[in-house]
Amino acid sequence: MILVIGCGFVGETVAKSLQEAGHSVIRIDPKYNDNTIDMYLGTPELGVVICVPTPTVDGICDDSIIREVLEELGDTPVLLKCTVPPNMLETYPENVTYNPEFLRAKTAEEDFKKQKHFILGGTPENCEIWKNQFSYLNNPKIKRILSPVEFIETDRATASMVKYVHNCWLATKVAFFHEVMNNVGDKYNHKEMVNILGKFENIGPSHMSAPNDDGGLGFGGHCFPKDVEAFRNFSKSEILQQVIDTNSKLKD
User: Fold this and answer.
1) Cα separations (Å) of 67 from 13, 22, 78?
2) Among 166, 183, 167, which Cα is nearest to 217's?
3) Which parts form a coiled-coil structure per UniProt (predicted)?
C-alpha cells in the first residue's frame, strides 16, 4: 500500500499513475477527504509519497508541513517530491528518499507520462525500494507510458540541486528573453529569432517566447517565483537577485 500525502496537481498525478499501474493507493489530504496517517501506520509493506506545499516565506523555504508528517511517519519508507533546499534535506531521517518533480500544473499528467528521467536521492537501499515501486514506468504494456524512463540514483543534496538549478536556469532564461523583447522588440522579429535559436542544441527551444499566454511578461506560476527566491537565499547568488529584480520590473 502507498499513501500519497498532499493531493494537489503533483500528488493527484502520482496517485493516479500508481493506481492505474495496479498499486493500492490511499490519498490523504484534509482538503479532499477525512483520511489520516495514523489509520494506516503498521500496514505491511507500507510506503509514503509526500507532495505537500513548501512555500517560500521571507526568502526561506517553509518545510514545516513536511516535518510534521515525517514525525508522524517514523521509519516508514518515504518518497519526498516537495521542493526543499539541500541544507534542509540533510536534516531529514535516512528513510526519506528525495524525488524532484518537473510537472507543470496545466499539463501534469502529460508531463508524467513523457518524463525521461526519474531522479532518486538517498541511500542505495532506499532508492531501490522506490525504483521497484515505479518500475512500471518502463512496462510497455502500460499504455500511459510514452517513452522509456531512466532511473538516476544520487545523494539527496545533489538531487535537490538538480531541481533548483533546473528551475532557476529556466526562470533566468524567461527573464532574459522577455527583457530583450521588452527593450528592443520593435527592432526585430522576436518569434522568428527564437524559432531559429531553438535549433541550437546548446540553447534549446523552450522558455524564449514572449509575451506569455496571458499577454504579460516575466516568469510566474506555482514554482519559479518561490524556487528562485529560496535558492537565491540558499546560494547567495547575485545573478539570481538580478533575475528577481528584472522579473519584478517586467511584471510592473
Assistant:
1) 23, 29, 12
2) 183
3) none
Question: Cell triple for residue 10?
Answer: 503533483
- Cβ neighbors of 243 (< 8 A, separation 6 or more) are 168, 171, 172, 175, 228
Domain 161-251 part of CATH 3.60.21.10:
no
Runs of H (alpha helix) within 75-122: 86-89, 108-114
State the 10-residue block means of pLDDT for the chain, 252 residues long: 96 95 94 93 93 95 97 96 96 97 92 92 97 90 69 98 97 97 96 96 94 92 94 96 97 92
- The region, left, alpha or beta by phi > 0 then psi within -120 to 50, assigned to residue 109 is alpha
What class has domain 2-154? alpha beta
Find, among 84, 244, 252, the residue nearest to 171 by Cα.
244
